[in-house]
Design goal:
It is a single chain. This protein has a domain of 113 residues. The protein has two helices and no strands. Helix 1 packs antiparallel against helix 2.
C-alpha cells in the first residue's frame, strides 16, 4: 500500500514552500499589481462615465430650454406676422375704398359734364327750332290757326331722335 516516508515528506514540503515563495515574489505580486491597476482603471472609467452622463444631462436640459425659447420666439413671430398681415389687409381695403370713391366721384363729374353738354346742345337745338319757327311765322304773316299749322308742320319736318 502506501508507504509514507518522513524524509520525502519534509523535502516535498520544503520544495513546496520554496516554489510558493518564488511564485509569490515573481508572479503573485505582478498579478496583484495588475489586478489593482485594473480595479483603479475601472473606478476611473465609472467616474468618467458619471461625469459624462451629468454633462450630457446638462446639455440635454440646455437644449430643451433652447428649443422652448425657439418655440416661444416662433409663436411670437407668427403672431407679429398675423398682426402685420391684418394691418396690411385693412390698409389695402382702405386704399381700395378710397380709389373706388375717387372713381365714383370722377364718374359723377363726367356724368354732370356730359349732362351739361347735352343740355347746352339741347338748348341750342331748341333755340334753332324757335328761330326757324319764328322765321317762318314772320315770313308768312299768318293768322293764329295758320301759325299753329306752320309750327306743327315745321316740327314734323325736323329729324327725330331715336329713343332706346
Amino acid at each position: 500500500m502506501l508507504n509514507l516516508d518522513p524524509g520525502m515528506m519534509i523535502w516535498t514540503w520544503i520544495t513546496f514552500l520554496i516554489v510558493l515563495g518564488v511564485l509569490s515574489k515573481l508572479a503573485l505580486k505582478p498579478m496583484l499589481t495588475a489586478i489593482n491597476n485594473r480595479e483603479d482603471q475601472i473606478r476611473g472609467d465609472i467616474e468618467n462615465a458619471k461625469k459624462q452622463r451629468d454633462e450630457a444631462e446638462a446639455l440635454l436640459n440646455q437644449h430643451k430650454e433652447l428649443i422652448a425659447g425657439a418655440e416661444s420666439e416662433a409663436q411670437k413671430i407668427i403672431k407679429e406676422n398675423q398682426l402685420l398681415a391684418e394691418k396690411t389687409k385693412q390698409s389695402m381695403i382702405e386704399t381700395a375704398r378710397i380709389e373706388a370713391d375717387k372713381i365714383i366721384e370722377n364718374a359723377k363729374k363726367e356724368i354732370d359734364r356730359q349732362k351739361e353738354g347735352a343740355l347746352t346742345s339741347l338748348r341750342a337745338e331748341v333755340a334753332d327750332l324757335a328761330i326757324g319757327a319764328a322765321e317762318k311765322i314772320i315770313v308768312q304773316k299768318l293768322n293764329k290757326s295758320e301759325h299753329a299749322d306752320v309750327i306743327n308742320e315745321y316740327i314734323k319736318s325736323m329729324p327725330r331722335s331715336q329713343k332706346n
